[in-house]
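Attaching the record inline, Q. Sequence:
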Amino acid sequence: MAVRETPPGECPQCWQHANDRSIHRRLRAREDCKPCVDHMVNGCPYLVPKQKAGRR
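Structure, as predicted:
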């Protein structure tokens, strides 16, 4: 799968780990991904830009 740009308002690491299967493919059965566990426990370390509001 080709790497795509992270959409606005999304954490780059969360988005990549959710959408790129090759990242987790190397893990054994029932093995946790350490970066994902760290995100679940400590939250996202990135300042996530918010989506721009559309004009009405």
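The chain has three helices and no strands. The first helix runs from residue 12 to 19.

More tomorrow.
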